[in-house]
Structures
1.
Amino acid sequence: MDSQPTLFGSVPSVAGALFSEDDRYRLFARKVWPVLAGTRAALEKCYCPDNGRPGVEPVLLMGVLVLQFLERLPDRQALEMVKYHLGWKLALNLELEQKAFHPTVLCYFRQRLVENEIAGTAFRAVLDALQEEGLVAKRTRQRLDSTHVIGLVARLSTLDCIRETLRLALEELGETLPEKERPDFWPLLWERYVENKLDYKSAEAVLRSKQKQAGEDICLLLKWLDPLPVPVREGRQVALLRKVFEENYTLDESGQCEPVKVRGSGVIQTPHEPQAQYCVKGQGKARQSWVGYKVQVAESIGEEGSGNFLTSIVTQEATGSDDAGLPAALHKQKGMGLEAPSELYVNGAYISAEALARAEKENRELLGPAQPSAHKENVFGAEGFDVKVEQRRAFCPAGKESTQCSRLVEKQSGKVSYRFEWSWQCHGCQWREKCVGTNQRHRTLVVGQYHTLLQKRRREQNTPLFVERMKIRNGIEGTQSELVRAHGLRRARYRGKAKVDLQNQFIGAACNIKRWLRWLARQIKGKAPENSPPRGCGGLELAFCG
Ligand code: SF4
């Protein structure tokens, strides 16, 4: 691709005066475009060099995608910007007469990025450039939090999901099976599930009987499919139908199917997006439920004046835990050449005894409040006891030492815990009511092998110093709000986890670029004379401003 446009066809030669030194498009062309151009070698592997007509330059496509997420535009509008917007032409190093390409080229390009597992190329390239500029240190202080991403799906009831999956499977089979090879019950199923829609206003009993009926019909169809060749019985939609059946029905010994009473977590919510999961978080007014994904966002905490930049974005299943998200985020950063953060600020969902032990072992500080121990109301929890796991000793709220300590190992996970017991001390103790359960003779306490770390954190998290230190974590809430409001993180534009991850990576790259350009503009303004005219922030710039 030409790195220099011709003299009279270039934006700077014709309309250079429109773009000041600190203009974001000029800065994009000067600082970001060379970074994107540097990804060309990685992008080349998405293409076959000697096959078919020449494609659109991949670096240009990468640039369009980045600008698209910067300004939160759909494909078609992004291509109009390529065609008509001088700022975009300047940013993308295009000549004035550059024609746009068809919007579907962006779809194919994204598909190539996903298939070649290089969806994070732009994010990584920008992060590398920020490191070179000295804006992100190899080992930094960071904050981490997760938020939800709503999948590109309609919420379906269980019965709707089952019927829709059956409809898609019948349509798939209808394309592969000639009419004479179809079973006798085919017209009935076709009429019931393809030609008819469910009346969701039907009475509860009717809906229940339809769910049972659907299960029996699926059973009948799957049994009939069993002896058929693999391509027929293992088609994409039939495989999905099999899974939906397993998740929603049980078979008794006589082969009769019954709808399950409670569906497990992570079950398919819609056949159109099987990877999107249903999840609930919070309670009361703060309760949120969604079908989709979850994303972990980590951000560096820069020193005064250097700004904060995203250091990793990890897409998880909606039901994925924060406990698993933390190591995944650190692993991703390691793959991008960053060291584990010296201090990592998180909320209580990330703090567990194991996480604290891991952090200590890896020589990093994990800062966040520990959750209270699980215990009944008005009963002393683990917090009321002084436990010294290493010495196998524990002291109860009455100051009595435990009489016995047993080491327990969970067979499957290998998890080690310790059970402390108090025996004769509990008889006649003034705290007995608040300490010993009605069915117990004396008090027992089970704690994990790293309980000492958890106990230490529970004690220090109430000190003014810790509370003051934790204020720095709040910035990640603002960053998430910025990602949601300015870049559209909340709603998936695409289907499938891999593509939702691609979206998140581009949003991360766009956010870092925006912050970088702002920092550069501030540097330039700092050098500018005091009477230079102020520049406003309007129209499209709003997207840049977040
Ligand atoms: S009931 Fe037993 S364990 Fe509880 S405070 Fe009294 S002596 Fe300690």
2.
Amino acid sequence: MISTSRISSSAVARVLFCSFVLAAFSAATAQQSVAALFTLTDDNSVAQFDTATQSNNFNWFVDGNDILAQQAFWYRTGSAGPEFSLNTLPIAVQGTTDANFDGNPDTLFVRYNGAGFRAETRYTLDGGAPGSGTSDMGEQIAITNLLDSPLDFHFFQYADFDLSAADSAFFTNANAVDQIGSGLRLSETVVTPVPSHREIAFFPVTLNKLNDGVPTTLSDTTAAGAGDVTWAYQWDVLIPPSSSFLLSKDKSIRLVPEPAAGALLSFAGGVLLARYRKRRSA
Ligand SMILES: [Ca+2]
Ligand SMILES: [Ca+2]
Ligand SMILES: [Ca+2]
């Protein structure tokens, strides 16, 4: 046994230094866990995040209109058990940067430490010109398997946009969605790779599935409305050891006036007339 008197001054210095490092690390960790609210600003757009709750991306203003209630991610490992919101994982590092050097933070990076994996999300807001009604959010997600065996991973994106109290939404193909309400049309294109499953539903059907404690497979329902519609995507992947599953999404918002019924009818009439003339001239 080593007596106190035999501890050298260099050992004391080492202990003091380690204590200092630990204290500094604790302070930094505390600061990071407190700073859960982040705002990205670019041209006509402002996006707000709360990484401490499953709200995650809870506001997205385009030309002053807040069109987003919630955009967040859930995961499940293996075929059994519940899904968890990413915010339930410890956050290793998070913060914003000003990637286009215009003085406003436009990029949010968050790294989560899971059991046997690491998840990283990066959001980059690219606003349109004032009054254009356009906005863009680039999203890069990387799930890295830290195990020596393949990781059975299930990843979910959930989005609840609100243009009005009675929106309609439908998938226009495997990875794009249109939502209509308040005389506006929002088009969102997402995703490589194409998701394994998807779902459009009325709030809070999908959110309840993600939080219900049992494994979920999305329903592949492709349309819903009118009401408080939401949509979600699901990726089922087997990630090899020491490899990453990379997800690249681009949410391109175009808030454009929905074509009026009269305009649609006159367009349809024009198409019929053109076909009739074509047949007659053939
Ligand atoms: Ca910027
Ligand atoms: Ca579930
Ligand atoms: Ca909604």
